[in-house]
Design goal:
Blueprint lengths: L10 H13 L6 H14 L3 E5 L2 H11 L7 E5 L5 H8 L3 E5 L10 H7 L4 E7 L8 H5 L5 E4 L7 E2 L2 E2 L6 E5 L12 E5 L2 H10 L18 H11 L2 H22 L10 E2 L5 E4 L3 H10 L12 H4 L6 H9 E4 L7 H16 L7
Parallel strand pairs: 2-3, 2-4, 4-5, 5-8
Antiparallel strand pairs: 1-9, 6-7, 6-10, 8-9, 11-12
């Protein structure tokens, strides 16, 4: 079985972790500080705080902005449930917005309709590696948390995503572009916000009694993350090569390929297509030894029992994610391509 996703690890990565083990300093230390410096330098943002996961990063970002009971946080429905959990952990109210059909990103026009005097922040994921329209989002005058969990290294209008929001977050889960097993990071040009986050991520040896968390990153995770970050250009280049390979196959089959609007650089964390018979296609590919999946398990509005999200509902029913990661071999790509062609010829794959 060709897995749907997997990390791309090499000897340099293994040695980076081994060096930490041999040094005997496993917890948050020099490697964490180095990882913070490395990512902030790449994105061009001056302050960073590494934490234990992307969800923890979102939670702390909301707390640093002062979100709490009575506040509202807008986020898209078509996204990982981590956003919903983070908003709830901050005791704020999630306000769910619909998405754009072509980009799968949050629909700014729908966001405008949902802004109230209680709106504390907007969480804007760059879904599947494609940047959202940050110019229009940031013009609304509401604090923006950029969710770059799936898009490190992507650019909007020539600038890295993660450099537009008041705060940006990154995730280093095992199957992310930068894989450290677990881990997350927050970046901001506002030193005060990052200081608040660093205060909240660790409760040990504090004079005053205040609610804090054990949200620290380990030096083992940071060492692996730093090693992975050094290879990010190669990772993205390979993802784009594979995406180009899939584009050719799907065009010949008459199936619409992923859209990349002008001024946006797609890094293809996921290669997502819309099909009339998504379930049948996934089943056919899985039976042939190629793991395909729905890219979002369940939209947030469905968890909350809400209606009126027509675009999200349609995309959710039709979306299919095809394996795309740097460690795919040429043989893997041949097998995937042949099975995609077979599905198209059999009528299982029909573009919507």
């Amino acid at each position: 079985m060709i897995p749907h996703s997997r990390p791309t690890l090499d000897e340099e990565d293994r040695q980076a972790v081994l060096d930490v083990l041999q040094a005997g300093r496993l917890v948050q230390g020099e490697q964490v500080a180095g990882f913070e410096a490395d990512l902030s330098a790449m994105i061009g943002i001056s302050h960073a705080a590494a934490v234990s996961s992307g969800t923890a990063a979102l939670h702390l970002a909301l707390l640093a902005l002062g979100a709490g009971d009575g506040d509202e946080v807008i986020c898209p429905s078509y996204v990982c449930s981590a956003l919903l959990h983070a908003v709830r952990c901050a005791k704020a109210t999630p306000i769910i917005a619909d998405i754009e059909r072509d980009t799968f990103n949050i629909d700014v026009q729908d966001v405008k309709k949902r802004i109230t005097e209680k709106t504390k922040a907007i969480i804007v994921p760059h879904l599947f590696g494609l940047p959202a329209d940050m110019a229009e989002i940031t013009s609304l005058g509401i604090p923006v948390i950029e969710d770059c969990a799936q898009a490190p290294g992507s650019r909007f209008r020539g600038r890295f995503t993660g450099s537009y929001g008041l705060i940006s977050m990154f995730s280093f889960y095992a199957t992310k572009v930068i894989a450290a097993g677990e881990g997350g990071m927050l970046l901001s040009s506002d030193a005060g916000l990052i200081e608040k986050i660093k205060d909240l991520r660790d409760y040990d040896e504090r004079e005053e009694d205040a609610l804090r968390y054990n949200y620290k990153m380990t030096d083992m995770q940071a060492a692996l993350g730093r090693s992975q970050l050094r290879k990010i250009d190669g990772f993205i280049k390979r993802r784009r090569e594979i995406a180009g390979h899939y584009d050719l196959i799907l065009k010949k089959a008459g199936i619409p390929i992923p859209v990349t609007p002008p001024e946006r650089d797609h890094i293809y964390y996921r290669y997502v297509i819309l099909l009339d018979q998504a379930e049948q296609f996934i089943e056919a590919m899985n039976q042939s030894g190629v793991a395909c999946r729905r890219p979002v398990f369940k939209p947030l509005h469905r968890y909350l029992g809400l209606s009126g999200y027509s675009v999200t509902d349609d995309v959710w029913k039709r979306a299919v994610s095809i394996p795309i990661y740097p460690s795919l071999t040429q043989l893997d790509l041949f097998v995937i391509a042949e099975n995609m062609r077979n599905a198209a010829f059999s009528g299982v794959a029909r573009g919507c």
